[in-house]
Amino acid sequence: MIFKDLTQITVISGKGGAGLVSFKRASNRPKLGPDGGDGGFGGNVYFVGNNQLNSLSVLRYKQEYKAEDGQRGGPNGRTGRNGKDLEIEVPLGTIAYDMDQQIVLGEVTEQGQKLLLAQGGKRGLGNIRFVSSTHQAPEEHTPGGESVTVNLQVELKLIADVGLAGFPNAGKSSLLSRISSAKPKIADYPFTTLTPNLGVVDMYEEDSSITNSFVIADIPGLIEGASSGRGLGFEFLRHLERTKMIAYVIDVSDESTTPRKVYEKLNKELDSYSAKFQLKPSFLILNKIDMFDSNPDKLSSIENEIKNLGIPYVKISALVGTGLKELKFFIYNQLEKLRSSIDSSDSIEPSYQTEESRNEKLIDGFRLVADMRSSTPGKTNE
Ligand SMILES: Nc1nc2c(ncn2[C@@H]2O[C@H](COP(=O)(O)OP(=O)(O)OP(=O)(O)O)[C@@H](O)[C@H]2O)c(=O)[nH]1
Ligand SMILES: [Mg+2]
What we know:
The protein has helices at residues 172-179, 233-241, 259-273, 296-307, 324-345, 355-361, 369-375, and strands at residues 4-12, 23-24, 33-34, 45-49, 64-66, 86-90, 94-98, 103-108, 114-118, 149-157, 162-166, 197-202, 213-218, 245-251, 282-287, 313-315. The chain is α/β, with parallel strands linked by helices. The model is unreliable at 346-382 (pLDDT under 50). The structure holds guanosine-5'-triphosphate and magnesium ion. Residues 166, 168-174, 186-188, 190-193, 220-221, 287-288, 290-291, 317-319 line the site of guanosine-5'-triphosphate.
């Protein structure tokens, strides 16, 4: 199930202002010459990308959105004021579909991106425009262009903030079901999840002063070789590619391997699929810690091994619920920092080019996959 948000609205651009027919006047000579100005342009209606939003609920309060009409031209050649554009803020990933023409008008994918939905009417021309040597007192003018009404179907394909990468059975779906209202299938066999699930995690439940939420994507389990097409993972790696952060979900109770090896294998798969993953912040979710309730020393030694990686981690039990609150706050805080760093630099990517600028971009010890890798080549067996 892909999480989709759908709604319908009507947008109406502004009419163009009419051109004026008017003549300069003196007390004894009624018509000295034409002076009717042009009208103003009608306002356009746009969608504008806003990365703080993650649902279309903003569009549910109102059905109709109208931009301002242009004003008519004035005497003395004065141009009428243009109608104000109407900018409707929408989350990234919003697609506008014109239901009457049955065409996609476009998709908003970037912060601040403007998508034109309805073009304002053209301005009308005043009679001043029609004067010529043989036509000294024109009565012609043009009316303003009509407004345009567009009936839209608006669709939001949710772009997840955090993608859960993990081997089958790691507990990704269990985690999603515990922290969001999504209800994915959970079972003790691999490949339970066949298509990605998205869930909205509401921070309000933990702290009523936080109204933000974030979106988590649970994808089918990855296996070694997923990046070259093995298993189900391949097709779904592209979902992870669009997320802001990657969470590696690791079953720490799996005695056939170590969490560090699991992390390194997963990381290798993602990296072989796309170099983009190197730029994405990541962290580890050590799941199933309830299995060590009677053996805390074992958990400590696993943690020590993980600490050496220098990547942030959070310990949880998706089954029992341990650590989930901490995990939610951890993700929320990282996303907030990421947001403010993107807002202040506009684009996060170029600043990772050099070692120095990359370090500047590190967010409170929130290491990038790329950094980790460059400092630990070939150390997989430590
Ligand atoms: N003991 C324990 N078991 C867990 C925990 N989290 C998940 N499980 C169990 O692990 C098994 C797999 O859980 P899922 O959530 O389906 O795992 P998944 O990662 O989504 O698996 P795929 O969809 O196959 O990739 C289930 O039997 C869960 O009950 C946990 O914290 N502790
Ligand atoms: Mg699953």
